[in-house]
Write a structure and sequence with these properties.
This protein starts with a helix and ends with a helix. It is rod-shaped and about 140 Å long. It has one domain. The chain contains one helix and no strands. Helix content is 98%, strand content 0%.
């Protein structure tokens, strides 16, 4: 009877060690998975921030380009107006001198 009790006791000890080893493996696996998830979140945050900066920079470039086009068109319109007005002003001055 003692030998059967000792055998059962040894089997129980081996089972506990196996369960402890398996739970340790599970804990290690969970730690690895969580660390990868945290790393991915940091990388995703960095990528999102970079995309936002790129988007803002792109918007600024487009805004400047539109402003430059608008300025060039306004300048051309003003040049055309001044060309039309200058001969009239010269004629008016000339007629006043006489």
């Amino acid at each position: 009877m003692d030998s059967s009790r000792e055998a059962k006791h040894e089997q129980e000890e081996e089972r506990r060690e196996d369960v402890a080893a398996a739970s340790l493996v599970d804990v290690n696996l969970m730690v690895v998975l969580l660390s990868q998830l945290c790393t991915k979140d940091d990388e995703d945050d960095k990528n999102l921030e970079k995309e936002r900066r790129d988007h803002v920079a792109h918007e600024i470039r487009e805004s400047r380009a539109r402003a430059n086009k608008r300025f060039m068109k306004e300048t051309k319109l003003m040049e055309k107006r001044t060309h039309v007005l200058q001969p009239m002003a010269k004629e008016f001055r000339h007629s006043r001198k006489m």
